[in-house]
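Researcher: Please translate sequence to structure tokens.
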Amino acid sequence: MRQVTLLAALVLVFVAPSAQAGLDGANMNAVYYYPNLATPYGGAIFSPSSFTVGAGPETSGVIDGITTLSVDFTDTTLTILLSTIATNPTWSGGDFNGPLFTLLSPGTLGITGATIDPGTNLAGFDASRVTITDTQIGINWKGLPYTTGDKVVIDFSFASAPVPEPSSLIAMASGCAALPLLALRRRRRAAA
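Model: Translation complete:
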């Protein structure tokens, strides 16, 4: 009986529930769209096209062999660093011109809002150029001029996740719950 109680306590301590609100661990896909969100642009390639959000840049996109996008997600941000060999380039017009990141798993993104971080230095880029759905993040830089070193940083907010019980509290509650059982066991031994 004692071994079972000890095993149960250890399981509760090390398998306490935890909350997750953010992008870390999300499996995503990157595709470049132009001139609209119905048309994947054949002149753009992301490598890898599918990735898991974690430490460091997740993917790199090459557009028309002249512009490179280094894409780095964190748990709460998206940073895209641009570099180009073109002189004074401007993104073409159309309804949409930019990358679309789609969540492959798990569930939904859970993003409740997005703001442009002060680290953004791409002239003309504002929140109206960011599209967010339950499973997609779109960046539309149609008509914007850019140069090497331009950066877009987007900060995401998420719905508050329920605060998990600390594992030490669960272990203490388990111990307190076991006290009456131990007292009952001692009474049975004394009566026998």
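Researcher: Any highlights?
Model: The radius of gyration is 25 Å.
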